[in-house]
Amino acid sequence: REVISPSNGASASAKPSTDPSAVQADVLQNLEYVVGAPSSKIPNGLDASSVYRGVAASVREHLIDAFNRTQDYWSEKDPKFVYYLSAEFLMGRSLMNAVQNLELTDTYSQAVKQLGYDLETLRDAEQNAALGNGGLGRLAACFIDSMATLNLPGWGYGIRYKYGMFKQAIDEKGYQQELPDIWLSNGNPWEIPRPDITFKIGFYGSVDNFKWSPGETVLAKAYDNPIPGFKTPTVGNLRLWEALPVAEFDLSAFNEGKYDKAVEERRKAEDISAVLYPNDATEYGKELRLKQQFFFVSASLQDAVARFKAKHGDNWQLLPEKAVFQMNDTHPTIAVAELMRLLIDEQSLDWDTAWGITQKTLAFTNHTVMPEALEKWPVKVLGKLLPRHMEIIDKIDQIWKDSLKEKVLAQVEEMHKKNPPKPKAAKPLKKEVPLAAKAEAGEPAEDEDEEEEEEDPVEAALNKYGIITENPWEKGVKLVNMAYLAVVGSKAVNGVAAIHSDIIKRTIFKDFYELAPHKFQNKTNGVTPRRWLAWCNPGLAALITETLGTDTWPNDLNLLTGLRKHADDKEFQKKWRAIKHENKAKLAAKIKARTGVDLPTDPLYDIQIKRIHEYKRQYMNILSIIYRYHQLKTASPEERKKFVPRVTIFGGKAASAYYMAKKIVRLINRVGMVVNNDPDVKDLLKVVFVPDYNVDWAEALIPAAELCQQISTAGTEASGTSNMKFQMNGCLIIGTMDGANIEIAEEVGKENLFIFGMDESEVPAWRESKRAEWKDYDPRFVKAIEMVRDGTFGDKEYFQDLADSVYDMKKGNDWFLVAPDFADYLRAQEEVDKVYLDQDEWTRRSILYTAGSGFFSSDRTIKQYADEIWDVVPVPVPSS
Ligand code: GL4
Fold first, then answer.
1. Residue 655: which CATH number?
2. Which is nearest to 123 in space by CA: 55, 64, 43?
3. CA 535 – ligand 1 centroid, Å
4. What is the pLDDT of residues 13-25, one digit of tens each?
5. What is the ipTM of this complex?
């Protein structure tokens, strides 16, 4: 594979100035003229937030400088670009990441020190950019970091939500409260508004002879967010769209004194990019959500298509050689229809040409098999909002099914040969009952069964491939299956971990896989080792650099295998442990400041941080803690001495409408209140729920963790990405054979993880047949459930249905196997305690985890996407 042009300039970028005193002068200049601080107050009379803004404005200059050079260079070279379309980019904070990626940390530390501040304090003044829910959104952020670092020409495209992920507070009863995330209130120094880059986005209206006249039009305005690569002058771009009204306001209404009406249009337009839907792998289905999706997809495609046209005119056959759009889950999949519309309606291509181009330009990643997250829009909703797109989707569906007819016919004939259909006359006995007798018995005169036309077997077989299908729960209601649309319209489809890519071929996309196996790929997720190891764990990073004798490992993470040979070295183990201990102490201080809970630093730090979901089984974790508490309470003083002290930490948000998830949050908090205040327990057990878990918390929690919980029911977690972050930071895993845990076990050695529970092949059988007669409740499970029920943690009534959901098969069905996996989970927990008593063995494993984490760098993942799907090559920007 060819690399276009100059050598990968591993030196620093050409910067405005990197001399600390020049940087200091620049910060002062920005404080005065950007922040507007009166010079009399500079520097001593300023609060951290103002100083942060001055420093950020100064760092921004370096970013913009390199950004412009990168984008100009790429524009001149005109290589193939990848566009990463994602409804979510969970960026977190930018200051430290920018300074570190630009290799300006020492310079800025010195500069601000001379002004009387330290960079660490200023760091905390930044608002978190939480434009994502969890793993999927953070993955997109890691991906654009890797794209820039690898010098890959590419942009992220998304939505500039005014309100990101809600802020979570926990009230005194332990209940989750949701507060708006007003993240832009202090401005955003990391973005460049582009008032000159706008596109019109239409909605509703009608179609006449293929011509769409939208009934409503809004403007999409661009904001560019420079994304610095590491050890390269390349700075990539995340372009986010804001929705605005086309006309500032309705002047005639204003003149008539109807002020509300005058601004109504503005409000309606702005609503589109106002809030991030706080759902993660749970139900969507709101029209505004579809509006958001089309809004950013249309703006992004129009933008990329316009850029292409400016360079290549109407040579549309060249488009697949110049652009590829990666669709991050089903959220941007309306792109299939929108690209067709742009090519046909706006660029006058014929259907077949447009379809050929579309299928070569789009690619699709699936991130979940949770049925409720696989978006299916009612034809009625989609057809009203986007009538022309509905027409296009209809035709795609028709042509697609027509193309399958022959194959399906052959399949049906084959089936009939093996299994001849029963002759019709032999069917219902019911037929013999005279209609009059039925009427007497009060039954409907017409037999509905017989009214129904027997479905043509070819038709039926074709329907399973249908993009447009009938809602199985609501007769007569038609749905557009967005995942199917994406599969048909894409050149490649991938899952996000080996097991997940395998499952989608066997389940949700089985029929599609059989038709086009070459389309299906795996791209195991990865995370950026810059933010998730080098920057968040400076102590460990320094030890790694010292041990390996090089600081290039964040760009070449496989170098970490060099740590393996030190795993048994007692001196090295000691240093390794000391760093972990220091990180635990830092975390304890942060938790004390935020929650008031005092944590000892010697116990095992056990952490589960992720969205609250039944399938992720925080519930099972807290039940095991409840049982541990019971053991402690009933132990003799002698027995108590044998307990391995543990600090259990939870963090995560529950979607606002997710009933059970909210109960789980409350239960964890309630258990914490009781356990942490019980004098019998002392420092042997602590239970903490960190409120408002976000990227910033993760950066403090992960380096301090010794054990992390990756305990999803096998077959449910597509990949998981926190598992990789924990692994990089030398944290041991207790987990199921699910998602990327399986590949982590391969890299680290399965015997070094605490694996438990049913595996993916056993789960369906338990659900389908064993569950009904299963009575094998472990007495420890029963005890824990009783304690939830009997009011030990208060809120007796409130917790009844939570208890029932896994215990009373008449009321709940324990779909995620909390009860049957519980005993083996406790066995694994006991194993954890045993190994923790042997600190040398624990540390040895910890080192092996980090040493085996090279595969999980998002650089590796992105390189695979670039080589195997995108066909995009690095275009390093020359350093000046
Ligand atoms: C998710 C998966 O649930 C998670 O396992 C995966 O790691 C992540 C990124 O691929 O995508 N899918 C959805 S939906 N939300 C996620 O976090």
1. 3.40.50.2000
2. 55
3. 24
4. 445 788 888 999 9
5. 0.98
